[in-house]
Structure prediction request, 1148 residues.
Amino acid sequence: MRPLSTLTRYLPILSWARLYDRDTFGADMLAAVIVTIMLIPQSLAYALLAGLPPEVGLYASILPLVAYAIFGTSRVLAVGPVAVVSLMTAAVVGNLDLPTVEAYIAAAVALAFVSGLILTVMGILRLGFLANFLSHPVIAGFITASGILIAFSQLKHIFGISAHGHSLPDLLISLASHLPEANLITLTLGALTLGFLFWTRKGLKPLLLRIGLTPTLAEIATKAGPVAAVAATTLAVWGLDLHLQGVAIVGTVPTGLPPIGLPAFTPDLWSQLFMSALLISVIGFVESVSVAQTLAAKTRQRIDPNQELIGLGASNIASAVSGGYPVTGGFARSVVNFDAGAKTPAAGAFTAIGIAGAALFLTPLLFFLPKATLAATIIVAVLSLVDLSILRHAWGYSKVDFAAVATTIALTLGLGVEVGVSAGVLLSIALHLYKSSRPHVAEVGLVPDTQHFRNVLRHKVQTAPHLVTLRIDESLFFANARFLEDYVYDRVVCDEPLSDVVLMCSAVNEIDLSALESIEAINTRLAEMGIRLHLSEVKGPVMDRLRCSHFLDALSGEVYLAQYDAWTALAPVR
Amino acid sequence: MRPLSTLTRYLPILSWARLYDRDTFGADMLAAVIVTIMLIPQSLAYALLAGLPPEVGLYASILPLVAYAIFGTSRVLAVGPVAVVSLMTAAVVGNLDLPTVEAYIAAAVALAFVSGLILTVMGILRLGFLANFLSHPVIAGFITASGILIAFSQLKHIFGISAHGHSLPDLLISLASHLPEANLITLTLGALTLGFLFWTRKGLKPLLLRIGLTPTLAEIATKAGPVAAVAATTLAVWGLDLHLQGVAIVGTVPTGLPPIGLPAFTPDLWSQLFMSALLISVIGFVESVSVAQTLAAKTRQRIDPNQELIGLGASNIASAVSGGYPVTGGFARSVVNFDAGAKTPAAGAFTAIGIAGAALFLTPLLFFLPKATLAATIIVAVLSLVDLSILRHAWGYSKVDFAAVATTIALTLGLGVEVGVSAGVLLSIALHLYKSSRPHVAEVGLVPDTQHFRNVLRHKVQTAPHLVTLRIDESLFFANARFLEDYVYDRVVCDEPLSDVVLMCSAVNEIDLSALESIEAINTRLAEMGIRLHLSEVKGPVMDRLRCSHFLDALSGEVYLAQYDAWTALAPVR
Prediction:
C-alpha cells in the first residue's frame, strides 16, 4: 500500500482519474468551454501587461494547465497568467534593460523556469509553511497596491500614448508628460470598452435575468463580455481602418502551437533572476493556495500546500518549456470554473485544448484587435482587487497590523512591487520580534472563591504582601531574556520586603538557553537578597527541557503544578 | 528637577563627581596604576592584531577612557582596544585592499568614527534592545571561535613568518606554506614568552602567596607578567642584537600625544563601512554591557543599556578624533579594575593619564620590543575566551540552541567573523520564527478535584465526549494562523460528533489581524458543521483587541473568564 499512497501524494491525478466517468466528463467540458472563453482575452491582455507579445500569454495557458491537472491537488483551480504575477514579471524583466524583444521573452521564460524549479524544490522539501510569513495584511496591501499600479500602467493604452515606470510616481509623471500626444480615436474606443465592460459586470446580468434567461446562461453571457468587446472593437478597427489613424493594434500573432524545448542554459541570468523568482513564486503560491483552499472548503476537500507547490512548480516549468512566462492559480477564473461545475482537474486540461485551438485557428483574427481593448479588460479585472478598506479595518484592530499594510501599500506604489512586498514581510517579522522582545508581564492575584488568578490591575483579586506572582505573557527566549531580568529586579527592589516571587508560566511555551541563563541569574540574585524564586504552571514540554539542565537543583523555591497550589503553600506563610 | 535629572541621565558624571572625595581618589588612583600596567602591552598587542602600528593602540587608550568616564554608567568598566573588536577591525579593513599603511589607518579611524555615530544614535533612539537579538549561544559561540581565530592569527609572529587570512582554513594554509621560512630565534623567544605568560597565569600567584606576599601584591605581580615579558624580551633583543638575526621588532613608535582632529570627510568610505561598523558596534556593545552588568550586580548598581550605548559611542568618536580605532569595554581589564578597588569612572580617566605618559615618555623604549612577545600576550589572553563546553551544554539543553552555536562557530572559523556572527543571528531568528510557526497545541482535560486543566496525554484528567478543549501554546500571529486552522479542522473531522470546541487562550498573548481572520474562518466553518466555538481564559490585552473587531458578535459560542467556567457550562450538556 505504501508505494501507491506515496505515488498518489505526488501524482494526485491517480486518485481521481480512476473514478472518471461520463457525468464528470460532461461537467468538466462545460466548465472548460466557459473558462476558455474567459481565458483567451485574459491571456492576451496579461501578456501585454507583462510587456510580452500576445502569443506568449496563449502559450502560458496551454501546457501549464495540463501540468497542474497532473500534479495539483485542487479540483477546480484554474492556472494561467494572472495580473499580479504579470506585473511582477514586467518589473523584474524590465529592470534588466534588455536590448531586444527576443532577449526580453527569453528572460521571461527563464523567470518561469527558475520559479518552477524553486516551487518544486520547496514542495519536495515541504517548505510550504514559509508562505505563512506573508501575513494577511501584507498580502491584502500588496494586492491592492498592485491593482492600482496595474490600472495606471494600462492607462497609456487607453490614451494611445507611451509611458513607462514601475512605481506610481514614475507612471504618473510619464503619463502626464505624454498626455498631449493622446490619440482621440483610441481614447474613444478605450473609454467605450471600459464603460461596456463595467456595465457587463454590474448591469448585464440583472437585465438578462429580467428578460427571462436562466441564471447559468446569464452568467455565461456576462463572462463573455470581454470576448464580445474584443470581437466588436476588432471589427470596428478592421471596418473603419482605425489602425491607419493611430489606433495601436496587436498585429501579427504567430499561428500554431508553442515550440517545445528546454529554455536556453543561462546560469548567469538564472542566478540574477533568483531572488525575484523566489518572490514571484511565493506570492503566486500564496494567492493560488488561498483561492484553492477557499474553494476546497466549499466541497469539503483538502488542499495539501506542499503538493500545491509541486503542482505550481510543474506548471511553471511546463510554461517555460513551451515558451510561456510565470503562471499561477487565478482567482476570478477559478471561481468561474467552480461555479460552472468543474469536477476534476481534467477541466483544466480541456481548457488547455481550447486555448491550443485558439492558438492554431484564431490568431489571424487578432490582427486588428486594439491594444486599448485589452487594457480595458485588465483595468476592469484588477479594479476588483483594489480594496482600501483593509487600511481602516487594520487601523481599528491593531496599529501594528496597520503599519504593515500601510508600509506595503506605500512602498509598492512608491517604489514598485518587489520593494513593497519585501518591505512588508520584513516589517511584519521585525514588528513581531519587537513585540515579543518586550512581553506583557502581569502581576496576578487570586479571584475570590475560585482557583483562578488574574491581573491585579484589571480585576478585584486577593494578594499577599510578602508574595509577588508575575505572569509572563510570552515564551522566554533570547530576545526577551534580558527584559525579564530587568523587570524582576525592578519589581523586587521598589517594594516592601518580599520573601517569595512566583513566576507563573502558563503562557511560557518555551525557555531557550539564553532565557534559562537569565532565570538562573534571577534565581541567584534573588537568593542573595533572601527571596525565594518559585515557578508555577510550567507546561510539560518546558518542564522536560528544564529537567535536562541543572536549574531545578539550584532553584531556591519550588515548582508548583498549579498557581493555586503555590498560593496555598506560600500565601499564609507570615 | 526635570532638566537636572535628564542631564544626569545623559551625563552620569554629574551624579558621582559631586560626591568625589579623597578616599575615592586614592582607591581610583591605585586601580588606575594597575590597569595602566596591564593596558600598555595590551594596547600595543591589540593594535598589532588589528594590523595597525602600535601607537594607534595607545591612542585608542587615552581619550576614549575620558569620554567613557563622562558618559558611561558603569563605575568600573575599563574601555579600550579589545581582542574581538581588533580582530573584526582587521577583517573589515583588510578586506578593503588598501594600498598604503596610511590609508589602512585612516580606514580604521573611519570605522571607529562610524561605529561611534551608530552607537550614539542607537542610544539616543533607545535601541539598546536590539542587542537582545544576539542570543547567548550565538555570542558564546562567536567569542570562542574568535579566540581560536585570533590565537592562530598570531602564530605567524611566534614563528617569525608572514601569513594572512581571515578564516581558519586560509590561516592554516598560509601558515603551513610559510612554515619553512620560520626564524628559530624568534620561535625560541616566542615559545619562552608563551611559557612564561602561561606560568604567571597559573603558577605565579600560588608561589608568591606561599613566600608570604599579601594577596593584593601577588595579584598585582601576576598582572604585571606581560609587562615583565615585554621588558625582558626587549632587553634581550637590545643586548644580543637579535633584530639583526631576523627577529621582527616594533621599531620606531612616534613619541607624543595623538594628534586631535576630525577624521577626513569620506562619505563613500563611511557608507562602505556602515554594515561592518554596525556589526562591530553591536558586538562591542553586547560584550561591554554584559561585563558592566555582571560587575554592577556585585555592588547593587544599575547599568542603563541605552546610556551605555551613548558612553561607548562617545568613546569611539573620541578614539576616532585622536587617531585611534574601535574600542569597547574589555572583560579582563574591567575585572582587574573592579578587584583593584576602583570606585568611580575617574579611575578610567587616571588610566588615560598613565597611557598618555607612556605615549610621551616610553615609546623610545619600545623600539626593540619583539612582535613575538606581543603575539604571545595576545594568545595567552584570548585562549581564556575559548570555551567549547558551550557546545555540550547547548546540545544537552536544546538542539535548536545547539544548531545556533555550532553554526556560529563553524561559520566564524570557516568564513570569518562577519559572516559567522551574522549567520548566527539570522539563524537564531529564523529558528525562533520556525518554532513559533508550528506551535504546540495540547488537548486538555480537568485534573480531578481541582479547577485546573492539563494535557490529556500527560495527566489523568476528565474529558467529555462532545467537548474538545484545545490549549494553544503560542501567541497567534501571521506565521501560525494557518497552522491553527489546519489543526482544528483535522481535530474536528476525525472524531465522534462534537457539539463544542473551546480554545483555551491562557498562553495566547496576542492575536494579530491574520490570526483573527483565521479564527473567524474557523468559527464560520465549525458553525456550518453544527459545532459551537468558545474561547476561555482570554487575557485582558487580547480581549481589548477582540472587542475592537466584529468577531465577538459573530462567535457562535461564549467567551469564558476561566476554563473551569467553560467546563461547568459545557461538559454536562448531553
